[in-house]
Amino acid sequence: MPQQASILIVDDEELIRESLRLDFQEMGYITETAVSGEEACALLKEKEYDLIVTDLIMKGIGGLEVLRQAKDKHVDQIVFILTGYGELNSAIEALRLGADDYLLKPYNHDELMLRVAKSLTGRTLRQKIQFYESMLSICSECKKMRDSGEPEEKGEERWISIEQFVRKTTGSPLSHSICPDCYQRKMGELSEMIRLGRIKPRDT
Question: Which residue ranges form the domains of the chain, and what is each CATH number?
Answer without folding.
Answer: 6-121 (3.40.50.2300)
